[in-house]
Design a protein that fits this description.
two-stranded antiparallel ribbon; six-stranded mixed β-sheet; alpha/beta; ion transport; Helix Hairpins; 3 domains; disordered N terminus; Rossmann fold; single chain
Length: 650
């Protein structure tokens, strides 16, 4: 027991912070040897990630935090990082700075210097700035801040050993006083007057005094929880009196002084060539978000993804079926005659046929091809540019720019996209965003599988389904915008990451982990879903359910009764339902119109269980379940109307 306690005492706390999309998670992966999802896109990290690891001769608990621009914040997502910095008393802070965003990052650096905690700066992506003819004097930057600055190319692990040494040195050596910025004498006097009122044991008193004087919306609430209410009243009254007597605006005074300090540092450390090569990649980024050129580029990307899934993934799935599944099926058929155990293993609801083979043979090859393409787009930085392209459409739905990124991220993972809505200040915008994410937006896995299914029916089927989903999504947004109570819309400025050539190795590693996580999470679900359907079938409950739903499934939707199985599987995993639809197509049980209707309703029907949990987390139980019921009801009505319309055309 004593050894365990001693081991815990030796664990040092290290916290990674920085602006969004500055390479924090790449550095975290490099230092810990673990893998967490990395993308050239904001909001990739939405919750803190922690790991115990060895850094040099120290055992550290390393925490990767969501992006933060500065300590004074109005964003609840940034508050997660600020609370960690204030409450956990780290032994060292590692600030990741994208070398191309040095000026923007120094605002956060100024706040971190105020905390008097050992600080190390990881100056990342220096290869990109050098290509642009920009050189940063890291030694001079270190001298001006009295902080160790480590140059890094995190994607290639260059500078990793030097960073580890800097972290160990910062933990073990007596901290040198940081060179903080100072304000005018009168302003410093007012900061000191608030600082003197804070209890002696309070941490970061100077920084908290500035936050109080600049009307930070969270700091007083935190003080009220921690200290006596009389004390916080005295502090609030004193701050109000100071602000009334002050001739000017505290925020403007701080910003003006900080901007001068930042300009002074960048003037001394950033050197630009007089002639720099034209940046072709930024021209590509500009075209991707251009209102005229951006739409054809988007359609071209979708077309390429569609063709790869239809012609490459489906061919790969066919080969895998011949090589892997057919021998297994023949073996089981030879060993077991028709009967219970035959049906249990390879029947319509067999654990091997509907469970294992559905996941490994039908779904996995399609996801492999689709994820390679999607991960390439993520690492290029295309996704944030897509949000700019689509912002005008979403603004018509009552959504600000802050809401656009979660919606676009929904095409990657609905659960993660739902969690990112915590950054939205408006409850109305959050409700609309979560509804639209859950409704007619297919996640990456479902998108790839839908492409594969519809590809068997031709390009026209793909165009019809996604046109319907687009119209349905826009209509739902317009109606929600019309009926929900209006609120003041917030301002939003989004940092656009540079377009980068993706590293093939990084794309393949990310694809591997996404497929690994898919199998780890989904394979048991596929098997359990097959077992559940098998039990329902043998008990007669499944047939009774099909008979009961026959007027809706066969009459209204025009689908075979086997689609009840797919709708049940949707409640577990949409990918399982997609695999079953492919089997129905191969068996000749779905025609052109039925295939379109089947894909449409399964895309809209029942968000996956993980997404429902995220909806409950963000909206609470009552709102989330009401939303789920509304989505399911709407999906049946829309699919039925679509079936009626298509039968009159075809």
């Amino acid at each position: 027991m004593r050894d365990t306690i001693d081991a815990k005492e030796r664990i040092k706390k290290a916290i990674l912070v920085g602006l969004p999309n500055t390479g924090k998670t790449v550095v975290f992966n490099n230092l810990t040897g673990e893998y967490n999802l990395v993308a050239n896109c904001p909001f990739t990290t939405i919750e803190p990630k922690r790991s115990i690891c060895r850094i040099g001769n120290e055992t550290c608990e390393l925490t990767d935090t969501p992006g933060i621009f500065k300590i004074h914040t109005y964003s609840r997502s940034e508050m997660v990082t600020r609370d960690i910095l204030f409450s956990e008393k780290p032994d060292v802070i590692i600030q990741c700075i994208d070398a191309g965003q040095l000026k923007q990052s120094l605002t956060l650096t100024a706040d971190l210097l105020e905390m008097d905690i050992p600080l190390v700066i990881c100056l990342n992506a220096i290869d990109e700035t050098s290509k642009k003819g920009i050189m940063i004097d890291s030694s001079e930057l270190s001298r001006l801040l009295s902080v160790e600055v480590v140059e890094s190319i995190a994607t290639r692990k260059q500078g990793l050993d030097t960073l580890k040494d800097a972290i160990v040195n910062a933990i073990n050596r007596p901290a040198k006083p940081h060179k903080k910025l100072t304000y005018s004498d009168s302003f410093e006097e007012k900061i000191s007057s608030i600082k003197s009122l804070l209890p002696e044991e309070a941490d970061h008193k100077r920084l908290k005094s500035q936050l109080i004087l600049t009307s930070d919306p969270f700091v007083m609430a935190a003080l009220e929880k921690e200290y006596d209410s009389n004390l916080t009243e005295v502090i609030a009254d004193t701050a109000d009196k100071i602000k009334k007597d002050f001739k000017g605006n505290f925020n403007l005074e701080i910003n003006r002084t900080r901007n001068q300090w930042i300009d002074n540092i960048t003037d001394k450390t950033v050197h630009r060539q007089k002639i720099a090569l034209k940046d072709f990649k930024q021209g590509v980024a500009s075209a991707c978000r251009h209102p005229v050129f951006g739409v054809p580029i988007l359609f071209f990307i979708i077309y390429i993804m569609f063709m790869l899934v239809v012609h490459v993934a489906n061919t790969l799935a066919g080969w895998m079926e011949e090589l892997l599944w057919v021998p297994v099926e023949n073996l089981v058929t030879g060993l077991l005659p028709s009967g219970f155990w035959h049906d249990f293993l390879i029947g319509d609801y067999g654990i091997l046929s509907l469970g294992v083979a559905n996941a490994l043979i039908t779904v996995l090859p399609i996801l492999s091809v689709f994820f390679i393409m999607f991960n390439t787009l993520e690492d290029m930085g295309y996704i944030p540019n897509l949000t700019v392209l689509t912002r005008r459409i979403f603004s018509k739905l009552g959504l600000s720019g802050a809401s656009v990124m979660p919606l676009v991220l929904g095409f990657g993972c609905k659960t993660m996209a739902t969690m990112t809505t915590k950054s939205l200040q408006s409850r109305r915008e959050k409700y609309i965003s979560i509804y639209l994410i859950a409704f007619a937006i297919p996640c990456a896995a479902q998108m790839g599988l839908n492409m594969s299914i519809l590809g068997r029916m031709g390009t026209s089927a793909f165009l019809i389904v996604f046109s319907v989903l687009f119209v349905v999504e826009i209509t739902a947004g317009v109606l929600l915008n019309l009926f929900l109570k209006k609120e003041t819309r917030s301002c939003f400025i989004q940092e656009l990451p540079p377009i980068r050539m993706p590293e093939p190795k990084a794309v393949l590693i990310k694809t591997y982990y996404k497929l690994y996580w898919f199998l780890k999470e989904s394979l048991p679900v596929f098997i359990y879903a097959a077992l559940a359907l098998f039990a329902l079938d043998k008990s007669g409950i499944l047939m009774a359910t099909k008979t009961f739903l026959s007027p809706v499934i066969k009459g209204f939707l025009g689908l075979p009764l086997e689609m009840v199985d797919a709708l049940i599987l949707c409640m577990a995993r949409h990918e399982a339902a997609a695999g079953l639809i492919m089997n129905l197509i191969d068996a000749g049980k779905l025609n052109y119109v039925q295939c379109i209707v089947a894909v449409t309703i399964t895309t809209m029907f029942v968000p996956c269980f993980a997404n429902i949990m995220a909806m409950i987390h963000e909206l609470k139980m009552k709102n989330a379940l009401s939303m789920t019921v509304a989505i399911n009801f709407s999906s049946f009505i829309i699919a039925g109307v679509l079936n009626w319309a298509l039968l009159r055309i075809y």
